[in-house]
C-alpha cells in the first residue's frame, strides 16, 4: 500500500474529542490508527481501529506496529486518552490514584516513546497531547489535584520533549482545554460549568479539533501549550 499520505494515531478515539479528532484528520485526507478500550472497526478503510488499554505497554507497541504495517508511517500522535476525577484531596483512593497514573501518565509515556522512535527514524513527526487549563489556574470549589498532577506533568514533558527533538524534525505541543461539552458532563451541570469560564460558556469539541489542526500545520511552533479555555487560564 502507498505510504505517501500522512498518518495520525489517535488515543481515546471512540467518543467525544477523540472521535472528533479522527474525523478532523480524515477530512484532511490523513489515514488514522484509532485506539481505545471499546473501539470497533467501521467501514472506512483509512481508519484502523485497534482496541486496547492505552495504559498497557503492549497496547502502545501494538498500535504503532499495526499502524506501520497497515499504512507504512506515523506522522502525528494525538495523546487524547485520559480520565478525570474531581474529589477533595483526602477523598481520593489508591484506586483513583493508580487509575489516573495508568491512563493519563503511563498512557502518554508508552505510546509517545513508541511513536517517537518511528518519527526519529523518519526524521519528522508531530506529537500533540490534550491536557487541561486547570494546571494553570485551580478553581475554588472544583478539587482536581490528580488532574493537575498528571496533566501538569504532561505539559512539562511536552516542553522537555520539544527541546530534546528540536533539531531532529519532531515538534511536540499540547492543547490545554477548559471544560468542553462532551458526554463526560451531565447536561444539568452545564450552567455551573459554563460559569467557571470568563466567557460564561462551555467549549465545543470543534474548538479543540480546530486547535489541534492549527498546531498540525504550524511548522514553526513547538513546545507550545495552547490554551483553548474561554479565558480560564488568564484569570477569574
TrEMBL record:
Family membership noted in the UniProt record: Belongs to the short-chain dehydrogenases/reductases (SDR) family.
EC number: 1.1.1.-
InterPro entries on file: NAD(P)-bd_dom_sf, SDR_fam
Pfam families the record matches: adh_short_C2
Sample GO molecular function, one term: oxidoreductase activity
Keyword Cell inner membrane: no
Domain of life according to the entry: Bacteria
Keyword Oxidoreductase in annotation: yes
Keywords (A to Z) from UniProt: Oxidoreductase
Protein name per the record: SDR family NAD(P)-dependent oxidoreductase
